[in-house]
Amino acid sequence: VTKTAEAVPSAEPAIDWSTRFKIIKGICQGLLFLHKLDIPIIHMDLKPENILLDENMVPKIADFGLSRVFGQEQTRLYTQTVVGSYGYMAPEYLYRGEISTQSDIYSLGLLILEISIGEQNCKDKNQPSARNFIDKVREEWTLEHIASKYASLDTEGLHQVKICIELGLKCAEIDRRVRPPIEEIVDTLNGLRANEMANEVPHASSVSKKMGFLGGFKKK
After folding, report:
1. 101, 116, 203, 213: which has the fewest C-beta neighbours closer than 10 Å?
2. pTM for the full model?
3. Which phi-psi region, left, alpha or beta, contains residue 98 (left: φ > 0; alpha: ψ -120 to 50)?
4. What single DSSP character describes residue 26?
5. H or E segment at 105?
6. Among the residues of 36-100, which ranges form H helices?
7. Is residue 133 within 8 Å of residue 113, measured between CB atoms?
8. What does residue 36 show for φ and ψ, rounded to 5 degrees?
9. Rounded CA gap, 180 and 71, in Å?
């Protein structure tokens, strides 16, 4: 059984930073696996609804209905039929039909930002671009703002949040050529130690849940 975001009771506790960080790392590890297969898989529809969380809050990438398989020597392809989820499609795909591993990196960046700040991207379902959300994060989420939102974290924890936001913004760059590869993303996250000051794991039911309920912050 899988719960949608809307089905999660409002009493569900907000998710603390250590759990958010665990989810971010898990998604990135999953995407690394897909992109590094002998025949790479481009997911093409990374969004909160396609990330399932088990009872231990371990994320699983789901729904490969739009995924593409690349040949060993292939790095890009083009399509005239653009399908996907508004707010998560890379601009080169949305406007030119260009597909590459960097298409997934763009979507991953938006997921990282959403999980890190606890706010939903693209609340207007008719808005195809996430630029307003990205610009808002870049402008508002200064270190001072991070410290006010995550008041219970120590210096190391705040550094984790800052790096994750910076990483999400890099992944969501308009120019695909400046987005980091998935190996670099995973290496960056692995270089950040687990924050021991925010390791409380809130209760999660035994059923898998979609990731969309990650808004809000745990109050201390």
Report:
1. 203
2. 0.81
3. beta
4. H
5. helix 101-117
6. 91-96
7. yes
8. -105, 10
9. 21
CATH assignment, 2-213: 1.10.510.10
Instruction: Give per-residue pLDDT as tens, 171-189.
Output: 999 999 999 999 999 999 9
DSSP, collapsed to helix, strand or coil, labels residue 99 as strand
Q: Which residues, including other chains, have CB under 8 Å from residue 42's CB and lie 6 or more apart?
A: 34, 35, 67, 68, 69, 70, 99, 100, 101, 103, 104
Residue ranges of the domains in the chain?
2-213
Structure tokens at 135: 């610009």
| Cβ–Cβ under 8 Å, residues 44 and 97 | no
Separation between Cα atoms, residue 138 and residue 130, nearest integer Å? 12
Catalytic residue among 45, 63, 104, 124: 45
CA 12/CA 163 separation, integer angstroms? 27
Q: How many CB atoms within 10 Å of residue 24?
A: 23
Nearest to 145 by CA among 136, 25, 213: 136
- Whole-number Å distance between alpha carbons of 203 and 15: 9
Per-residue DSSP letter, 123: -
Q: Which residues face 208 on adjacent strands? A: 2
* 45 is annotated as an active-site residue: yes
CA 108 to chain centre: 4
What does the pLDDT look like over 38-94, one tens digit per residue? Answer: 888 999 899 999 999 998 899 999 998 778 876 555 566 767 677 778 889 999 988
> What residues contact residue 105 under an 8 Å CB cut-off, 6+ apart?
90, 171, 176, 179, 180, 181, 182, 185
Whole-number Å distance between alpha carbons of 4 and 213: 8
